[in-house]
């Protein structure tokens, strides 16, 4: 784990909700596909050792299977999405080339977590993370990685669901993302799910402790 220190204000009101004068508490998790980010996020939100509110992403793609609006995603028309983008309502957003679908995190999601007295937890890519930090320098950024590229490749191949072409493309994407890892405040190696999850909990508790000191 690596650390570049900064402070985050995190005092709670007597009702458990936060006052308008307090800073937002934001934690951003990024890392290559296959490093276990989503599993860690689910574990963190289930445990609630630290109060985390997962930011719900907005998208222009159609719902899949049993996905529900306002729970899995905010499903917006492209016109509505772009209108809100132009109104500066997103902290980060991007278009997926090829599909033409847009994805993004609304600033209102950060405020929702703040109002509930918790951290806004964003699981986004490295480009989105840099957009968040540019606007909220106090955000806690955590890069999830494997111990080595060889281990990462082994995990991809163990899935048995992807072609060699897809595996090579994911490896190349992972290399580009790893080049950005040093721009994160912390790096966590996920070679053991329980240990990685606990490490993130301790990071956030440490930030809370420093803020309340």
Q: Can you put this structure into words, describing what you see?
A:
By secondary structure, this protein is α/β, with parallel strands linked by helices. It has a domain at 26-55 and 117-212: P-loop containing nucleotide triphosphate hydrolases (Rossmann fold, 3-Layer(aba) Sandwich). Helix content is 40%, strand content 18%. The chain is built from seven helices and nine strands; from the N terminus they run βαβββαββαβαβααβα. The strands form two sheets. The protein has a five-stranded parallel sheet with strand order 2-7-1-8-9, with helices on both faces. Strands 4-3-6-5 form a four-stranded mixed sheet. A hairpin with a 6-residue loop joins strand 5 (90-95) and strand 6 (102-106). Helix 1 (37-47) packs across helix 7. The two termini are 23 Å apart. Residues 2-21 have low confidence and may be disordered.
């Amino acid at each position: 784990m690596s650390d570049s220190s900064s402070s985050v204000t995190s005092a709670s009101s007597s009702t458990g909700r936060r006052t308008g004068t307090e800073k937002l508490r934001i934690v951003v998790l990024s890392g290559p596909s296959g490093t276990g980010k989503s599993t860690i996020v689910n574990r963190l939100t289930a445990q609630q050792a630290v109060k985390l509110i997962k930011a719900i992403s907005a998208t222009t793609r159609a719902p899949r299977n049993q996905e529900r609006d306002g729970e899995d995603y905010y499903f917006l028309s492209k016109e509505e999405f772009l209108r809100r983008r132009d109104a500066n309502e997103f902290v980060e957003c991007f278009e997926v080339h090829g599909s033409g679908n847009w994805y993004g995190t609304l600033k209102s999601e950060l405020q929702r977590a703040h109002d509930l007295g918790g951290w806004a937890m964003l699981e986004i890519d490295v480009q989105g993370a840099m957009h968040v930090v540019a606007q909220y320098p106090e955000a806690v950024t955590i890069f999830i990685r494997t111990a080595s590229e060889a281990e990462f490749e082994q995990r991809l191949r163990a899935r048995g669901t992807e072609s060699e072409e897809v595996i090579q493309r994911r490896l190349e994407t992972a290399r580009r993302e790893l080049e950005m890892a040093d721009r994160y405040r912390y790096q966590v190696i996920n070679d053991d799910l329980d240990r990685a999850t606990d490490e993130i909990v301790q990071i956030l508790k440490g930030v809370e402790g420093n803020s309340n000191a």
